[in-house]
Specification:
Two copies of one chain form a homodimer. Chain A has four domains: about 5-95, 2-Layer Sandwich (Uridine Diphospho-n-acetylenolpyruvylglucosamine Reductase, domain 2); about 100-220, Uridine Diphospho-n-acetylenolpyruvylglucosamine Reductase, domain 3 (2-Layer Sandwich); about 225-410, Vanillyl-alcohol Oxidase, Chain A, domain 3; about 425-465. Helices cover about 35% and strands about 20% of the residues of chain A. Chain A is built from 17 helices and 18 strands. The radius of gyration of chain A is 23 Å and the shape is globular. Mean pLDDT of chain A is about 95; it is low at about 1-5 and about 460-465.
């Protein structure tokens, strides 16, 4: 009578022989690996989840996957918003969550070397003991991994002033699809030796290799007391003009967030605050550093000149209360229905026009699209709300118009969430067919057998392509 | 009797038919294209210099070069220090110096769109009228082009605080080897759509394509009066420790330059200043922005604590006088003999050890290596001096030891000058053979026929490779 292992696929048997119980085929693990936080899931459960605990585990898994032509989907905490880490039938999941060590912290060199599975927020708590921080601060930072942040090229609230992931990584250790380990980048803050493959890996959404370590560029914690400003405007367009006036005035706030009327009303309802006046939009701004107070004063004057009603505080608790309204956006949206969170980014001057486009699309499709924006850098998150569990076709058609409008205004499909599965059909439209094919050819250099996250990012193909 | 044009190679005849007198075969132009400022020249004059005046000129030139298998070397102002733009027999030079327009300046979006041939310093003068600047400031900025800065991924004095070229480019328009035009990157400050090919092109030294336009990320001119600090120390190691103490203290100077004793003595002699005390090394530091004075005071305290003798001023003329000593480094070196300017970069904490290594190599080879460092970011420029017109073998052997020492200390071959021809033999040592081959395969995706700057950067091949 055959032993149970023989009933498994040969690839699982080989993995188990090497990795033992780090190969997980429990129904709960397989089911969890089907979806991220985009509201989208794969067609069915994957083959298995490998819980890697070391670079050697990753290499061995990939060698077996490569030998057997088994597709591999790398996952962190599964907080992505574009479906890039969703794994389906026949795919192997490589979970990095157990590789979460901080290997080195160097306050003198302002760098840290970490494994990819550490949570961004957890790293920040460790770094704070040294007076340091890693600036990327996606809204998901308490639940998302550094490796996931690197895979998506994550941004966040603070990035207009302090940069995105691409500005904060000196090097990565990358395991290629065939199991070979490369050390990309450097420990020195400056370097131009060869091609910048570190930047190429950042935001590559699991298509080029598996990040097993990262050398991060740190900052010292900013001294001084932050000032927080809340300003309301009669509508989103006026608020967008107010934020543009702040940028034009030369101030550089740490945070500058815009909430349109629908967003503000939804959050007020969720938090049981008095409802805002109809149409009212809000800017929430924070200045920091030794000039926080002077910058806040300058910004207040600019916002009043732009027609805003302004509140300003240097009290930490009151500042947190004002920011909480912005931070409650995701639960407020969830309370409205099924949400497709979009992520277009436009030149800052196009922000008012983009809000006009969103209003036009709402009317054209008879839907609501509450929208928040990282106004300091022109990155908008329009939330397409529907009342069915699956995202209905009308939402996809409206999103299609939104993407085209953003590109027309000089913008881009995705500011910080990535392409994943959800936006791959629009990728060639932004890149052009020649660039789309060139990028896909670069993927093939890293992964000639095409086993890493196949179908993601470069799934849709331009007309006439042989992809 | 054949007409003179028939005596030319078919490729020149085809180029002239399309580009007329923009195809330059004057002996002076051909001779000038053989060398950059590295002190190194090619074996002989190239075929011709094409003075492109438009993207269409570049595309037509490349189509003809591609058809005929003619290698193409792209040149800006020829101020490179690694030989990347040196053109030799059989090669066609594509000069970008006549494409120097500023196409767009957007103060509201903090961006400019420029052609590649504009000089960095010229651009800054144009931007200053709008209260703006482009931060990259290589020492060559008055004579080097923005396109050349992009090709090398240039740095400069200000980059510890304000970033390098890679931090200051949103997108590039790139003509591929076969003449196709791609638009890489974006106008929005944030974006993660597809692979980051803009970063890949920055620092690629003419191997991936021809940059015909760039969308630059600007800053507003920093307000306030800068403060300048000069501090002398008994030796370079103490000065390096002083700079490390400044970084460790949390200050972020705009400029922090270290000159060792040989550099300082040479400059004093050139400028006819009183000779410094034997062994004396100097830090020259500038703080800027609204907190310049407070930061200068904090730094002064730190430097005195580290054993420095400190002068500080907020007078612009006096500040310029102090900085002039640093800025006179290149002519001072030229006055000593033939110079090979090197460019290693190490983690900041390794700066004192790197100075020890340089002293050791000086003794071992009986040579002098005056060294300056961008101490704020660990980037050293050791100047290997010799008295023969050609760089002698002993210098190359000493440089070889220097590179190995830098890599051993966690550093890199080149912080801001690039690999070019002069450092290609060490490239595989830093990257590892697997990464070296992967990078070269990426070059082949962009340029399968291998006509763009062949032999540069990836010239030396690892053992056993089929490059």
């Amino acid at each position: 009578m055959p032993a149970p292992a023989v009933l498994e696929s040969p690839v699982l048997a080989r993995l188990r022989a090497v990795l033992g119980d780090r190969v997980d085929t429990s129904p709960a693990a397989l089911e969890a690996a089907r979806a991220d936080r985009s509201g989208h899931a794969s067609d069915g459960p994957p083959l298995a989840v490998v819980h890697a605990t070391s670079t050697a585990d990753v290499q061995q898994t990939l060698r077996i996957a490569h030998d057997t032509g088994t597709p591999v989907v790398v996952r962190g905490a599964g907080t992505g918003l574009a479906g890039a880490a969703n794994a389906g039938p026949g795919e192997l999941v490589l979970s990095m969550l157990r590789m979460r060590r901080v290997l080195e912290i160097r306050p003198d060199d302002l760098l840290a070397v970490v494994e990819p599975g550490i949570l961004n927020g957890e790293l920040d708590r460790v770094l704070a003991e040294h007076g340091l921080w890693w600036p990327p601060d996606p809204a998901s930072k308490d639940i998302s991994t550094v490796g996931g942040n690197i895979a998506t090229g994550a941004g966040g609230l603070l990035c207009a002033k302090y940069g995105v992931v691409r500005d904060a990584v000196l090097g990565v250790d990358l395991v290629l699809a065939d199991g070979r380990l490369l050390h990309l980048g450097r420990r020195a803050v400056k370097g131009v030796t060869g091609l910048d493959l570190t930047s190429l890996v950042i935001g590559s959404e699991g298509r080029l290799g598996v990040v097993v370590g990262a050398t991060l560029k740190l900052r010292r914690i900013v001294p001084g007391t932050p000032c927080t400003i809340a300003a309301t405007f009669p509508d989103a367009r006026s608020a967008a003009r107010g934020s543009a006036a702040v940028t034009a005035g030369g101030a550089q706030p740490a945070i500058m967030e815009l909430m349109d009327a629908r967003s503000l009303a939804a959050v007020h309802a969720l938090l049981e605050l008095a409802p805002p006046a109809a149409g009212l939009a809000q800017l929430t701004i924070q200045t920091d550093g030794p000039n926080a107070a002077a910058e806040a004063e300058q910004i207040t004057t600019v916002l009043r000149g732009a027609g805003g009603t302004v509140t300003v505080t240097d009290d930490a608790a009151e500042g947190e209360r004002l920011l909480r309204i912005r931070r409650s956006m995701h639960p407020a949206m969830a309370s409205l229905g099924t949400t497709l969170i979009e992520d277009v980014s436009v030149p800052r001057s196009a922000l008012p026009d983009m809000f006009d486009e969103i209003a036009r699309i709402e009317r054209a499709y008879d839907i609501v699209i509450p929208t928040v924006a990282h106004a300091g850098d022109g990155n908008l998150h329009p939330n397409f709300i529907s009342d069915s569990a699956e995202i209905p076709d009308v939402i996809w058609r409206a999103a299609d118009e939104l993407f085209r409008a953003a590109i027309r205004l000089g913008g881009t499909l995705t500011g910080e969430h990535g392409i994943g599965t959800l936006k791959s059909r629009w990728l060639a439209e932004e890149l052009g067919e020649d660039q789309w094919e060139l990028q896909r050819d670069i993927v093939r250099v890293f992964d000639p057998a095409g086993i890493l996250n196949p179908g993601k990012v470069f799934a849709a193909r331009p007309e006439g392509s042989d992809a």
